[in-house]
Amino acid sequence: MKLKKKIMFLLILGTTCLFANGLNNISTLVNKINKTSDLEIKNKLMKELALELLIIDKEDFLEAKKIVNDNLESENLEFKI
Prior knowledge:
3 helices; single chain
């Protein structure tokens, strides 16, 4: 019984870290996009951001959308969620 509890705890901990990591990746990508001036790199980062938004968990999507909308400096960028 103790082994089952330990395994469940590790699964829950791993899942929590995985979802938190997804939001962290989105925030990091938005910061990188804002800091770079090279359009080729910016486009590559935008594609990575779009991919991250596609694979993120539904519960975290609204938070991710808020991060993108609040922090992404879109001068000449065509990025809509």
